[in-house]
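Anyone? Bumping this.
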Amino acid sequence: MRQTGQGFELETAIADAGTLRRVAIDPVSRVEGHGKVTLLLDDKDRVQQVRLHIVEFRGFEKFIQGRPYWEVPVMVQRLCGICPVSHHLAAAKALDHVVGASRLTASAEKLRRLMHYGQILQSHALHFFHLSAPDLLFGFASEAGRRNIVGVAAAYPEVARQGVLLRKFGQEVIRLTAGKRVHGTGAIPGGVNRAVSREDRDGLLADVGQIVGWSRDAVQLVKRLHAADPALYDVFGAFRSNSLSLVRADGALDFYDGHLRVRDADGGVLVDGFDVQNYHQLIREEVKAWSYMKFPFLAALGPRQGWYKVGPLARVQNCDFIPTPLAEAERRELIDHGQGKPVHAPLAYHWARMIELLHAAETIAELLHDDDLSGSELSTHGARAREGVGVIEAPRGTLIHHYQVDDDDLVTTCDLIVSTTHNNQPMNEAIRRVAQRYLNGRELTEGLLNHIEVAIRAFDPCLSCATHALGKMPLQLELQDVAGAVVGRLSSAS
Amino acid sequence: MNPPSILLDGLPVPFVNGQTIMDAAMAAEIFIPHLCHHPEFKPQGSCKLCTVKANGRYVSACTLPARDGMEVENNTPDLNDKRRTLLQMLFVEGNHFCPSCEKSGNCMLQALAYELEMLSPHFDPFYPNRPVDASHPEVLLDFNRCILCELCVRASRDVDGKSVFSLSGRGITKHLIVNAESGRLADTDFSWADKAAHVCPVGVILKKRTGFAVPIGKRRYDVEPIGMQVERLAARSAGEEG
């Protein structure tokens, strides 16, 4: 996107902000956490400034300091109730280095992997079926009262049922590996504290074939939506950017472990095989006064050229292949859709996400046959270290945990770069494109403003994690005149 | 001649001379909520969780000797309501963050809160600033969770012969200290083998580097509520947590 002297286009209005009309979408709904969007419009309703703000702050990085390191995987997962497993595992991976567990036992790694792929499955199902399907199935400006999971259940009962049951299966995988569906304690520094019994594996195996089948159906559903309206799906909010993700040493898609790879907007490899322990040499973060969420960028390219997207769309196109057959076939179809170039359209995130859902289901099916899951060698340790970095591909993208621990076993520093933070600039870019295309010069309605939210939802942001805030409230937007007086108010309840 | 007995919530409970109401109840496997009491140590009656009504008067069950014919009320709404209030005060006076506490599931304070159906802290939390002492190579002291029961004080003094711990200050400023010039546990002769290392009913004295080795759901009070574990509470011994 073209950049102004003060930053990116539409990031900061060129005209005196005092002369512009302000519209706020506060809070953004059907996302995890609490954020808002502000628009500044001139007297002809032309969009002059668009910003996604994250408005609350909790500061886990600070209060984790001074706590014993073995508490950390259990404590930091409280960042979020949606994908706590990601934080739990990223912290455990970082602290594996501290306890000298350079290589986990086979049982421990497979149990963690199973937990994580269960997490990917449940989170992706939650996001697609509960949060985004209402927009995609009914239309962005359809009746607001119907745009929710209850509306989906009424109009498409089988789709809603499968969404609920897919999520339930993922939650059950988590329960059996972590002890609880939410906020369990399965991973410890150096391994895990529980195995999965043969009986529990058999219970999951009885259903997993159906889960793989429904996951295939979900991919087909997204593809049908794309095929029905390519003019919308291929261009809505589209912007070009670099992409970052973990990939396995052989180039395979891997959610649990690997090296960092970055591709540029044309798909060329910028960085490959990058050791995650050195992530701070690869990534820097910029702070902007108007948001609590930082803006990460590639150090070598700087903040203007070095921003990148993460998450399903980045991962599926960054890897060389997906190591399960059904998902790999679907990946090839997505790649072919780009006709030799990366697909950058935000709505293609849903397509990539459902391919990942299918991959997670296939991987769980494979793992459940592995007797290592019921093994007894669950943890290991070696020479103590003072520092560790753990990186994992969370449902929403690359998640980085970095800890330093003193000789008394207390955490001295903690740095968390969460998935949604990586996607800060991409989300801002997407909503600016949407605002220019759909809102410019028009009288704003709830349906039009929902277009902005549709673009944000495509990234499946977790604003709780991104700023460590919690909360979820209905959409409310206010219209103010130039003097700042409220002249209209809309809410999802009205 | 029948042995002497008390009438505990209407049930005759025998005792031998010298036993307290708590001793008699434990021997009969009747649960009276308590925190500072431990059958191996001289009772001191400081936590007041074991408050019962004996012949119409509020008394500490762990310190009052049983007397033949004494009528004792224990499991009544009035007493449990008062005990719940005491628990709420203990929770807000410290920093009790159960979700990431290694003692969760093995903690008597938490178990009693469940047992007595404490649904909220009710009072405003104090959020005291109590840095942990991680100086010892084997043991972490997390003072945030201290409820001033003095079990570690008694165990270290009376069993270990070391007097590593003590209470200092008065009233609301009273707090647990380590008897070393530096105030650090590393500068004492404290050891994980000490009796004092194994009597804390909450999560103050913890073995280092072993957090969450036992999964949630398989811990002492996950398996069975504290009120059902009277026999084992009476048989607590060194090496057994809780």
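Late reply, but here is one note on the structure posted above: Chain A touches chain B through 22 residues (CB under 8 Å).
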